[in-house]
Design a protein that fits this description.
Chain B: Residues 2-298 form the Glutamine amidotransferase type-2 domain. Chain B: Pfam families: GATase_6. Chain B: One of its GO terms (molecular function) is transferase activity. Chain B: Keywords: Glutamine amidotransferase, Transferase. Chain B: This is Glutamine amidotransferase. The complex is a heterotrimer of chains A (245), B (298) and C (442). An 11-stranded mixed beta sheet of chain A has the order 1-2-3-4-5-6-7-8-9-11-10, with helices on one face. Chain A has a single domain, classed as Glutamate synthase, alpha subunit, C-terminal domain (Pectate Lyase C-like, 3 Solenoid), CATH 2.160.20.60. Chain A is built from 2 helices and 11 strands, in the order βαβββββββββαβ. Chain A is mainly β and 245 residues long. Chain A is elongated and about 60 Å long. Chain B contains 8 helices and 15 strands. With 442 residues, chain C is an alpha/beta fold. In chain C, 34% of the residues lie in helices and 13% in strands. Chain C contains 15 helices and 16 strands. Chain C has helices at residues 18-30, 102-115, 128-133, 150-155, 182-188, 207-221, 237-246, 266-271, 276-289, 307-315, 325-331, 339-344, 369-372, 377-401, 420-426, and strands at residues 35-36, 50-52, 73-75, 84-86, 90-92, 118-120, 136-141, 158-162, 173-175, 196-198, 228-233, 251-255, 264-265, 297-301, 320-323, 415-417. In chain C, the strands form 5 sheets. Chain C has an 8-stranded parallel beta sheet. Chain C has a two-stranded antiparallel ribbon with strand order 1-13. In chain C, α11 packs across α14 (377-401). The longest helix of chain C has 25 residues, at 377-401. Chain C starts with 17 loop residues before the first helix and ends in a 16-residue tail after the last helix. Classes of the chains: A mainly beta (245), B alpha+beta (298), C alpha/beta (442). At the A-B interface, loops of A face loops of B.
């Protein structure tokens, strides 16, 4: 198994072989630089990362339509600011996975620590296990689908995008939320300031159906979810809402 | 601001490797705390025996002949093991308090790191790897242990400012975060008769728990009450003779990961610290909930 | 005989002065704390309380115009592959698009570029106006992450992770709905016309141990090319500087309490944080204790107005200074030519601080399309460039008079203090004495 091959492989028979980076042998810098050197239309569309062992900033800042498979658990900020790429983590992820993601998809086979998808602007983040606290904090357009539960303060100050939780949500869901949509199938421990349950209209069922399909979670039915969003009472300051600030 | 590791063994066959496993975990979190490091190891001691760990800035001078002098002073046999700047004294458990007082008199420059039936504490300034090497932590066996790497925030980078802090028999505490009301709490505890070695916020948390335990609470109750009395950001890991506990503040920003298998319970500020543990791929890995006390006991 | 009580002069309370009483009436009428911009207005010990000693017989001055006095400053030489080199030790501080109008941002870029220095984005993303017109642009990475994206991160010349600002260490912000225009709303992914609350903490890290990991991520995304600044408000400057360095910063930006802001509670602006003068020596001490002085650069801001302030900050150990409020004044903010309009707003030129309301007659702190036309970016940019050049010349003049061939060679020993307070805060002796309060057992 090749460890590092920074030179482009010209031979046609190796054109489609995955490029493999074993982080036990190759520094992180080499992996990320190689990922940044890929341009759109390159044949190097398959990448594998071995032995991440909880290290940080794995596969960050990619800007090309490639597939990256990370085998093992990673630390903070895996796939941070991702654009176009599909990054799959065959393990669990530390804080801030796919933070500020722009587009593409990040799939986590295990659990996610806090701040999953923080400030994400686009793309799809799928967490097949549970997500910890502050999932989707300050999200700005990203779609997040979590098969398990999400922890406290999830979708805090969420501005835009959709958070779909097949399990339960922890305390203070959607505190100070703006226009993001929250769909929860299980229980919600408590709603945060200015977050309320809202009517599930046909357009929301459509959005949810599409997201569940794209996340490969078609065993859940859109009708089983409740929708939460902003009561918009904090949109313009009013002293009688001071307790909520 | 720091890195914490903890390991509580269920499988006795792992006990000879406790020091090796714990020091590797600690070194993996060097980035979180390059200023100093410390480790508390709980090992078995013979029935009725106790241990006292002391540290000296001048170990050659202070440790020479100290076992004999101490033995004479307390009227009981004393065995001494010197490791770099630290020395561990083994003696009858009922003589520990007398020995602590005797050391203050015999060696005023020496500091008691901890005492009890099982606890040994080693801590120094410097990179975690160097600290682990100088005390030969990897050769130690034990039932459970806690390690800490420190990035000092507001108090000095000194040996005494390193974690773990031990303020009661067989008790120790390490901390990641920053307390915001520790000065007031320290003043209150001083009035109640507690003494402090440093200006460190973590020492206040340790003393707070010891004070509550001395007042009749068990560790779980003491940790519960810390949630309302201590303000700021914290993940605490505490050790006792038989077990270890974990608690995070209600906001729970400072990271914490736990793993449990049939053989051990492990704690790490980051998953990195756990990544090389045996069977980690099959372990139950989770994050402790905010304001929730977790406790394992043998 | 009747007792005659002679009239006494009406006496106002020093505690309940006119301003205080008006503020109580305002709070009672509106039920909201006062939000405003412009930084602390109370009098605090400042650079005015320091004097340079100059040279005479014991030291030799340099000739102006002939003997060189360098002002160049390199920022980010610690880790970045592409450090920034500025011609002058004065940069333009972060002020957001949203808070400022497009033409005002463009003018800042133009002025800074002519003068050979950098300008900085703000809480609201990078605009084409400022990227296009700024030769060197620092991209702020803030808790809100408005407009944050990897493309702009890579287009920036340096990245400034903002932990806090001098006007409000520990606080977030509030941009009132009036300023959330279509364009601002789009850049911030917010509905138009609502109040925008800025978070006080970053959403995905807390503390120096996590900051180290955040810096690693940004360096990896930008291939270790860009200098990473860390900006803190003047809270606990010794510790905050030391921790920023430990976390891996290339540059520390330290903003004292006089630092301006667009929208914060007045109670916060006036009552939280330390004066700029008091912040510099502890920060420099932290750098020196770590062996990092001049290796990790220190930029100081908050109330810098002229070349003397620049020279004094550098003498106390800063590598550069940053200006915000002063730059806006150079562009034309609070100009008496708009006096009649200021009066309509219930204020006067020179005192206008409702920068968050979007009604700025000078067209600078507004998103009103008509008002912002009043800023001619070319002319305003030229004024800023002139002002930056004057400040640089002034600082050079002082440095030469102290016998220095580089402004960085100014030292605390070139200064004396006029007041005991300033002597204690800046660690220089009271004029005419060798007394530094707090030093040598005094």
């Amino acid at each position: 198994m090749a460890t590092s091959n920074l030179a482009k492989a010209p031979a046609p028979e190796t054109q489609y072989a995955a490029r493999v980076f074993d982080l036990a042998k190759v520094p992180l810098r080499e992996l990320n630089q190689a990922l940044h050197d890929v341009t759109d239309g390159s044949n190097e569309t398959a990448w594998e990362v071995l032995n991440p062992k909880g290290n940080h900033a794995v596969a960050v800042g990619i800007d090309a339509a490639i597939n990256v498979d990370v085998h093992g658990s990673v630390g903070y900020y895996c796939a941070g600011m991702n654009q176009k790429a599909n990054v799959t983590v065959h393990g669990s992820v530390g804080p801030g996975v796919a933070e500020n993601m722009m587009s593409g998809a990040v799939i986590v086979k295990g659990d996610a620590s806090q701040y999953a998808g923080a400030t994400g602007r686009g793309g799809l983040l799928v967490i097949e296990g549970n997500a910890s606290s502050r999932c989707g904090i300050s999200m700005k357009g990203i779609n997040i689908v979590v098969r398990g539960n999400v922890g406290h303060m999830s979708a805090f100050m969420a501005q835009s995008g959709n958070l779909v939780v097949l399990g339960d949500a922890g305390d203070a869901l959607g505190d100070s939320i703006y226009e993001a949509r929250l769909f929860v199938r299980g229980s919600v421990k408590s709603l945060g300031a200015d977050c309320i349950e809202k009517e599930m209209r046909p357009e929301h069922i459509e959005i949810l159906k599409d997201l569940l399909e794209r996340a490969g979670m078609t065993d859940a039915k859109p009708e089983e979810f409740k929708r939460y969003g902003s009561a918009r009472t904090l949109y313009n300051f009013n002293i009688d809402n001071a307790d909520a600030y | 601001m720091c890195g914490i590791v903890g390991l509580f063994l269920k499988d006795k066959s792992l006990e000879p490797q406790l020091g090796a496993m714990l020091s590797e975990m600690m070194v993996l979190l060097t980035d979180r705390g390059p200023d100093s490091a410390g480790i508390a190891i709980y090992g078995s001691s013979a029935e009725g025996q106790g241990k006292l760990t002391i540290q000296s800035p001048a170990p050659k001078r202070d440790f020479a002949g100290l076992d004999a002098e101490l033995s004479k002073k307390i009227g009981a046999p004393v065995a001494m093991t010197v490791k770099s700047t630290h020395a561990v004294f083994v003696m009858p458990a009922d003589k520990l308090e007398a020995a602590r007082e005797a050391i203050a008199e015999l060696r005023p420059a020496a500091r008691v790191m901890g005492m009890g039936e099982a606890i040994e504490i080693y801590k120094e300034v410097g990179l975690p790897e160097k600290v682990a090497e100088r005390f030969e932590v990897s050769k130690m066996s034990g039932t459970h242990g806690i390690g800490h790497t420190r990035m000092a925030t507001e108090s000095a980078v000194t040996t005494m400012g390193a974690h773990p802090f031990s303020t009661g028999p067989d008790q120790c505490l390490v901390h990641n975060g920053s307390l915001s009301n520790h000065n007031n709490v320290r003043r209150e505890l001083r009035r109640e008769g507690m003494t402090f070695e440093t200006e460190n916020d973590t020492e206040v948390a340790a003393a707070y728990l010891s004070h509550k335990i001395a007042g009749g609470m068990d560790l779980g109750q003491a940790l519960e009450s810390s949630l309302s009395d201590l303000d700021g950001f914290f993940t605490f890991v505490v050790g006792t003779k038989n077990g270890f506990g974990v608690v995070r503040d209600p906001i729970a920003c400072k990271p914490a990961v736990m793993a449990e298998t049939d053989r051990y319970v492990a704690f790490g500020s980051e998953y990195r610290a756990l990544a090389n543990l045996p069977g980690i791929e099959q372990a139950r890995v989770w994050e402790p909930e905010p304001s929730t006390v977790y406790f394992w006991e043998h | 005989m009747t007792y005659h009580n002679p009239p006494t002069t009406p006496r106002r309370s020093a505690t309940f002065d006119e301003y205080t009483m008006s503020e109580i009436r305002r709070a009672a009428a509106t039920g909201i704390y006062d939000i405003r911009g412009a930084g602390a207005k109370r009098k605090v010990p400042h650079f005015d309380d320091l004097l340079f000693l100059g040279a005479s017989i014991s030291r030799y001055p340099l000739e102006g115009y002939r003997e060189k006095c360098e002002t160049k400053v390199v920022l980010g030489s610690r880790f970045a592959k592409k450090p920034i080199e500025l011609k002058i030790p004065i940069t333009v501080a972060g002020m957001s698009f949203g808070s400022l109008s497009g033409p005002a941002k463009e003018a800042l870029g133009r002025g800074a570029t002519i003068a050979g220095t950098s300008t900085t984005t703000g809480d609201g993303g990078m605009t084409e106006e400022e990227r296009g017109h700024s030769q060197t642009l620092v991209y702020q990475y803030l808790p809100s992450r408005y407009g944050m994206n990897p493309r702009d991160l890579r287009r920036a010349d340096a990245i400034e992770i903002v932990v806090g600002q001098g006007a409000k260490p520990g606080g977030g912000g509030m941009l009132l709905g009036q300023k959330i225009s279509d364009r601002v709303a789009e850049m911030r992914t917010l509905p138009k016309g609502i109040d925008q609350r800025s978070a006080c903490r970053h959403p995905d890290w807390t503390g120096p141990d996590d900051l180290e990991i955040k810096i690693l991520e940004i360096r990896e995304i930008t291939d270790w090319e860009k200098p990473i600044y860390v900006k803190v408000g003047g809270a606990r400057p010794y510790y905050d500087t030391a921790l920023a360095v430990k976390a891996g910063a290339d540059v520390v930006v330290l903003d004292g309490m006089q630092g301006g802001t667009a929208a914060t509670q007045e109670v916060f602006i006036e009552n939280v944080g330390q004066p700029t003068l008091a912040c510099i020596r502890p920060a420099v001490q932290a750098l020196q204790d770590l062996g990092m002085h001049r290796k990790v650069q220190l930029i100081v801001s908050g109330g810098i107005r002229n070349g003397a302030d620049v020279a004094k900050a550098l003498a106390l150990g800063a590598d550069a200074v940053s200006i915000g409020t002063a730059a806006l004044v150079a562009l034309g903010d609070n100009d008496p030519r708009w006096e009649a309009e200021y009066e309509k707003l219930g204020t006067i030129a020179g005192a206008y601080d409702d920068w968050h309301e979007g009604k700025d007659p000078a067209g600078i702190t507004t998103q009103d399309p008509e008002l912002m036309k009043r800023v001619d970016p070319i002319a305003a940019g030229r004024r800023l460039a002139n002002y930056l050049k004057v400040m640089t010349l002034e600082a050079q003049t002082i440095a030469r008079a102290c016998g220095k061939n580089h402004v960085h060679h100014l030292e605390p020993e070139d200064l004396c203090a006029l007041t005991i307070e300033a002597a204690a805060m800046s660690g220089v002796p009271l004029a005419g004495t060798n007394w530094i309060p707090g030093k040598n057992n005094f």
